[in-house]
Specification:
The chain is α+β, with helices and mostly antiparallel strands. About 25% of the residues lie in helices and about 40% in strands. The protein has a single domain, classed as Beta Barrel (FomD barrel-like fold), CATH 2.40.380. A hairpin with a 2-residue loop joins strand 2 and strand 3.
Length: about 180
């Protein structure tokens, strides 16, 4: 993520859209969310039940609150879903994750690190990754870097290394609730 000055970020409580795209520039997910603030891990966003998450051909409304971290590295977005959601952690491996004007945007690179209550921690969508890295002709150095990142993040989630621990996410979920948004 580009190093915009924190003072240029929206005020906590500002509603905005997070826009994902694919490697070829095509549209992907758009998430309605609220800017929560930042800490040493990066910028945090929240989403409440019923808010829009959609992509061409699919609409998804979250049933539980969630918070998402966009780290300064710009190479992943970490979402933590509040209990009782079955997916505790969902990390989108990304490229060019940054602020564009007043909205965060990035390229979804298909690989995901997931923790579910029924399956544990695993790397997901490797089939889609294999298909798209050939179809979109991802540069080999990028492929190697993001595959190593996915494996590293999988280990950090397994070890509950901050910010992937419960306390960090719970603090941001509490801040989301304190905004009193609907």
């Amino acid at each position: 993520m580009t190093d915009d000055a924190v003072s240029e970020r929206p005020a906590p409580g500002t509603r905005l859209l997070f826009r994902w795209r694919k490697w070829d520039g095509g549209p992907h997910w758009v998430h309605e969310c609220v800017y929560l603030g930042c800490d040493r891990w990066g910028d945090w966003f929240g989403q409440l039940p019923g808010w829009d998450s959609s992509r061409p051909g699919r609409v998804f409304e979250p049933e539980h609150p969630n918070v998402t971290l966009l780290p300064p590295s710009g190479d992943y977005a970490y979402t933590h879903n509040a209990a009782p959601h079955h997916t505790r952690v969902y990390i989108d491996i990304a490229w060019d994750l940054r602020w564009q004007g007043s909205e965060p945007t990035g390229i979804d690179m298909d690989l995901d690190v997931v923790e579910r209550t029924d399956r544990g921690v695993y790397i997901d969508d490797e089939d889609e990754w294999d298909e798209h890295r050939v179809a979109y002709d991802y540069p080999i150095d990028l492929v190697q870097r993001l595959e190593a990142l996915a494996a590293e993040l999988e280990q950090q989630v397994l070890q509950r290394t901050p910010p992937f621990d419960e306390a960090t996410a719970e603090d941001w979920l509490r801040r989301l609730a304190e905004l009193g948004l609907e």
